[in-house]
Amino acid sequence: MNDEVVSKLLNHREKLLGYVRKRLSSPELAEDVLQESLIKALRAAPDLRDEEKLLPWFYRILNNAIIDVYRRKHIETEHLEPYSEEKDLAITPEDEENLCNCFRELIPTLKPEYGELIEALDLNERDPKKVAEGLGITLNNLKVRRHRARQALRERLEETCRSCAKHGCLDCTCKHN
């Protein structure tokens, strides 16, 4: 029975693969889902009572596998997204040594709420969720405020430090160093 099931399913391979490809963005992922589903079908084939229902039964296996892919993507996105933002913003120890410290003197010249955000989030590395809760705002609102605070600081740096600020403020030649 197993050999018959496999050969019947393989006769429809292109049609089955096309079905999966329409539902998944990656052709490689579609191929993997089809292969895994074929393995599941092979294992469960002895329990199949009516061979005429083979294709509808296999489509159910494929649909479940596709749903599982989307569930995994959702979970990965939900749990890994916060870390990807932090990774992009990470400063290497070498950059930190060369970083211009002019910005520290400019923080008090910003709006008080901007200075407090930069101190809390960027310098003290406090948890954004806790900072947002403390301010009584949403996390999205905090992100907007943080962006505006950084933008204001950048503008102050460009006014004060000129060329070094536009190039990342590395190897600063300002008198404030």
Automatic annotation (TrEMBL):
UniProt entry keywords in alphabetical sequence: DNA-binding, Sigma factor, Transcription, Transcription regulation
Membrane-spanning ranges: none
Highest taxon above the source species: Bacteria
PROSITE patterns: SIGMA70_ECF
Domain RNA polymerase sigma-70 region span(s) in chain numbering: 12-73
Pfam families recorded: Sigma70_r2, Sigma70_r4_2
Classification via InterPro entries: RNA_pol_sigma-70-like, RNA_pol_sigma-70_dom, RNA_pol_sigma70_ECF_CS, RNA_pol_sigma70_r2, RNA_pol_sigma70_r4_t2, RNA_pol_sigma_r2, RNA_pol_sigma_r3/r4-like, WH-like_DNA-bd_sf
BP GO annotations: DNA-templated transcription initiation
GO MF terms, alphabetically ordered: DNA binding; sigma factor activity
Domain RNA polymerase sigma factor 70 region 4 type: 101-153
Homology family: Belongs to the sigma-70 factor family. ECF subfamily.
Protein's name in the database: RNA polymerase sigma factor
Lineage of source species: Bacteria, Pseudomonadati, Nitrospirota, Nitrospiria, Candidatus Troglogloeales
